[in-house]
Structures are given as structure tokens and as C-alpha cells.
Amino acid sequence: MKKLLAMTVIAAALSQNAHATIVLDFEGAGSGAQLLNFYNGGTDSAGNSGTNYGIGFGSNALAAIDSDDGGSGNFANEPSSKTTMFFLSGSAVLNYAAGFDTGFSFFYSSSTAASVKVYDGIDATGTLLADIPLTAQFNQGCTGDPTGGFCNWTAVGASFAGIAKSIDFGGTVNQVGYDNITFGSSTPGKVPEPASLALVGAGIAAILRTRRRSAR
């Protein structure tokens, strides 16, 4: 019975983890590097790799590191540590081939009006599932971090029906930054260790204890 209970705990934990919210904070990507397959089992253009979420970026999507941390990013008060996403041509397209549902959200800082569009096909194709408008707010009401022109980071998001597979991050080139891109929630988050991982660990520990007792 104890063995069955332990296995049930692990199965429940893995099920929760499979549906856990994913947050991209871009930490570890190179300054000015193309993100490319940084979150897709590969690397950015500088050879850095992040967690493999099966999420890839078009060649326009770049990483920016805060100038206070040795990069060239003209921003402050970023929601997580020191790295954000921006683009210098076209728009930044993200592909998530496995798809996601429920909601999508992020933080942004922009000097111009912009919009972010969510589609049910890859490469910003198919049916438009959500269109999130952005307003110019980059330097409004800033406090804290003393350097960086883009200092106001606003949380936005949307819920939608269907399965989304790509996102088109728009705006004026070199005038908008994005951070803490969150899948599965209309409210952007940080990057905590999922509680389900602790639950998995507890389940494994329970199995090991049961096996030791059986061996005795």
C-alpha cells in the first residue's frame, strides 16, 4: 500500500509539473545575442543555452543586458535580474510548436504604442487568438534603479480560447523591451522552482524509505 501511495504522489506531481506555468526571463543569454534556440534545446548566437522548453525565436529577437551589469541595455527596474528581450528589425517572433492554452502575459517597457499578437499557427500565422495593446510608458513614475531610460515595466496579459503556437512581439525597433514572458497565465510571474518538483522529491524519498523497510 505504501509503495502504491508513493507512486501516486509522483504521478500527481508529474501531472502538475506538465501543466506548470513557464516563465522566460532570458537570464544567461548573451548581451546582444540572437535568442534563436536558447530555450529550444540549442543555443543563442553566442553559444549560451537555457532550459529546453521547446520554445524558439526568430532571428530578430535579441537579448539585452542592463548596462549596470556590463551590458549595453538602456533600462532599469527590470522585473527579473538583468536580461530582457528586444529587437532591431521587423518584430520578434516566438514559436512554441507544442502549443499552450489558457493565457499569456509579460512585462514590457516602450516609448511608443505597440501590440503583441498571439496566433494558433507557427511563425505568426493562422487564427489570431489575442491582441494585447501596449502604450508608451517607458519613463513614467520611475524610482529605484538610478540608471536606464526604460525604467517603467508594466505587466500585461490576456486569456484566450484555443491552442496558441506563436507570438509576434511588435513595436518600434529599439524602442520596446520585454521580460518575464509567461505561458499559461494572464498574469506574468517570476521563475520559482515549481512546487511540484518538491512533491516529486518527496514521492521518490517515500519509495526509497519503503524499499529500505522491505529489505529489512
TrEMBL record:
Pfam families to which the protein is assigned, alphabetical: PEP-CTERM
Claim: Signal is one of the keywords in the record: yes
Keyword Signal in annotation: yes
Keywords noted in UniProt: Signal
Domain Ice-binding protein C-terminal, chain residue ranges per copy: 191-212
Domain of life, per lineage: Bacteria
UniProt xrefs under InterPro entries: Ice-binding_C (IPR013424)
Signal peptide region: 1-20
NCBIfam families, per database record: PEP_CTERM
Protein name: Ice-binding protein C-terminal domain-containing protein
